[in-house]
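step 4 of 6: structure.
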Amino acid sequence: MSAGTDKGRDMLWQRFTVAIPYIWLLIFFLAPFAIILKISTADPIIAQPPFTPTFDDGGALLATADNYKFLLTDKLYIITYLKSVSMAATATILCLLLGFPMAYGIARAGSAARSILLLLVILPFWISFLLRVYAWMGLLNNHGVINNFLMWLGIIDAPLQLIYTDFAIYIGLVYSYLPFMILPLYAILERMDLDLVDAALDLGARPSQAFWDVTWPLARPGVIAGCLLVFIPAMGEYVIPYLLGGPEALMIGRVLFDEFFVNRDWPLASSVAIVLLMMLVVPIVFLQRSQAKDAGGAA
Amino acid sequence: MNRKTSRFVLSVLAFGYAFLYIPLASVIVYSFNDSRLATVWGGFSTRWYGELLRNEQVLDAAFLSLRIAVTTATFATIFGTMAGMALSRFGGFRGRTLFAGMIISPLVMPEVITGLSLLLLFISLQQLIGWPAHRGFTTITIAHTTFAMAYVTVIIQSRLSGMDQSLEEAAMDLGGRPLRVVFDITLPLIAPAMVAGWLLAFTLSLDDLVIATFVSGPGGSTLPMLIFSKVKLGVTPDINALATLIILFVSISVIVAWYAMRRMQRQTEKNMQTAAK
């Protein structure tokens, strides 16, 4: 066999390696968004499928922007979007407040302890997400573990309303997404040169000063990655507000789900999804940039 | 670390781990509760485990979930390894930016969006070409593969970028053709990452509720879908038993895998040191 065909075969093989996952993602990741976009400009009708076609039989465009107009003027939807942003942002900050000291402590532990502590952070992530949220239902219930314990201690006489509140949603969000905050923070804190902090302290900096002037700027890429990894999926969360939140807990993921499955308004559900996606494009691009930079730095 | 911060960090660590593990411990304890009222202690009993194992609905759903998870993990590992190699070894190829974007986006895409978009794709395909005729095993597996392969790609990519390329280059210099080098050198070196990727994809698939709810049809209930339909109504003792079994199974597997990997890593380090002498 000549060297030429060998080389040709290798090139072919490289193309094949790129093409298979590429085509898969084009069909099953990108194309679906085009379809959502198309359906979001239709009107709901009682038919199968329950929306109007984009073009009529003569080829005239039937697309409308009514769904978007409705979303952007309806008070309930605007409030729901804003509430989702504020809940996801609050949960992100709570994750950071709890996750940063934890990641710091893990990164500074001895090497044997460190790998066990890290394992203990990752372990819950492998256990079913749904069951972890369910576990909190048992704790927060009116007759649940926390209320029973507090009543047994005599701190309260009647059960506190813990479940079906915003408080319960925050607990669920922080509990579920905490590992996503700790891992990128740990990765960066572990690599950090401790001598820099010591130098700052030796030169007379107060510990808080050393933290804000040295540790925090160095840890920033990890903080940004961790915050985005928590904020973006929390925005669209469905299970947590459904199981732990009250009926008035309007998070956008839940509204989308109900619009689709309960009201069967596919076009409106599609436009809810598109608007949510538009809100997340900026943070997603940010995340992509930071990951790319990270990969570039490691190489 | 000075002592004051250290005490603060230690107390946050203790609080954080208590926060992570108390809910799991409470589920395990209550799974042995004899009372039907899941929150009132009625004495020790294992009756819910017996009821669980006699519940055919649960067993069917668990079997469907396992079949989907194994298929998903296998395809996601193959596609993810290909994508990871393409991104870290092939340099700049045409459409790389779009490719990298499509790989990272499913990692953070809210599940409701992924689920809705894939369902609408399957419905459109059905109208256009008659496939998929039913929604169930196939459609859930395709959906899971799509988001799980993103995780595998990231694992493979980080393994490849942290890896010394000199072995591959040496093999090429010695006249090994690229394809042989991949199979004889690269793949064996990234095999641990592929195993990790397979396990992660398997877990992600087994775990998913929202996407499966969208793309599944009538009758195709996965285990999380069945659990969700039960826990919507509140805490039930048989779900506590099921959760306990899953928690114990996952914990033991993760700890065993972690231990095995650590031993392997130490062995490699030792071999490297011996080789360097």
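step 5 of 6: annotate
 - The mean pLDDT of chain B is 87.
 - Chain B touches chain A through 93 residues (CB under 8 Å).
step 6 of 6: archive
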